[in-house]
């Protein structure tokens, strides 16, 4: 990643002010710590490939956020092991000084810790800035013989169906397993490593159909057709072919199977630099009220209906819900 170390006049003035304040007395030491923050660009580790939904989401958000934080964001993409590689890199190689963040998909990536514990304590980082909530869905290629979810179930009564998913440990995968339990069909989940490949698997017929976050499916346009949504309501309507929800179709009470992209940070950085963290939080919140953010989301073919702010409390609640859900379906997600 290329570092742009150009120092603005305003940043030099802020740094000078920090020095002046720092020597006045220990009682003002805390404000002095944040006076020049951020001192350099912010590194953002993304545990997926460049060019996918997380990338589009990140760039739309940071394009506006940099106006308020007065710095640039430098994404680094580290795909592999269902997101595990990116987290290992972030936790193992970046200093906890609030100049680096991780931009994760809380749904599948937290489920991954249930399948196999990482090499770090999962409480050593926290999610604190939620950008969206994106429900999973079931979809087929536009040329598929399956035109309605009932066609899928009917075929599943005859044979085991091959189902593409971006990662085995994924909320959409759990939605599929719950559907199989409800209808009595058998499925073979096939992780295709990422959203693009999961869409391609359905379009080419490599798999019978796929499950994925619905935002990525809607972005695929006419190449696919959505047959079922794992949410309380199909809020995108025609963009998801007016597909019914699982609860509507089968009378179930399945909770929304959501992916949720959010920024995370080392817990040690929050503890050591609470003033810096406060700046991150306050500037982050400003983005949602900026009309340029909505324009950026729509330009990137995102869906404003899924954009919603969440702070530390909301993220912690979501993280725990994923851990609980993962334990419930652990045997399915691990293949044991």
What's the structural blueprint in terms of helices and strands?
Layout: H1 9-22, H2 29-34, E1 42-46, H3 53-69, E2 73-77, H4 84-93, E3 100-105, H5 106-115, E4 125-132, E5 134-141, H6 149-156, E6 161-165, H7 171-183, E7 187-191, H8 195-204, E8 209-213, H9 214-219, E9 224-230, H10 246-250, E10 258-259, E11 261-266, H11 267-272, H12 274-287, H13 291-299, E12 307-310, H14 312-328, H15 330-334
Parallel strand pairs: 1-2, 1-3, 6-7, 6-8
Antiparallel strand pairs: 3-11, 4-11, 4-12, 5-8, 5-9, 5-10
Could you describe the 3D structure shown?
The chain has helices spanning 9-22, 29-34, 53-69, 84-93, 106-115, 149-156, 171-183, 195-204, 214-219, 246-250, 267-272, 274-287, 291-299, 312-328, 330-334; strands at residues 42-46, 73-77, 100-105, 125-132, 134-141, 161-165, 187-191, 209-213, 224-230, 258-259, 261-266, 307-310. The protein is an alpha/beta fold and 336 residues long. The protein folds into two domains: 37-133 and 260-334, Bordetella uptake gene, domain 1 (D-Maltodextrin-Binding Protein, domain 2, 3-Layer(aba) Sandwich), CATH 3.40.190.150; 135-257, D-Maltodextrin-Binding Protein, domain 2 (3-Layer(aba) Sandwich). The chain has a six-stranded mixed β-sheet, with helices on both faces. α7 (171-183) links the parallel β6 (161-165) and β7 (187-191). α3 (53-69) crosses α12, α3 (53-69) runs antiparallel to α13 and α5 (106-115) packs across α14 (312-328). The radius of gyration is 22 Å and the shape is globular. Residues 1-32 have low confidence and may be disordered.
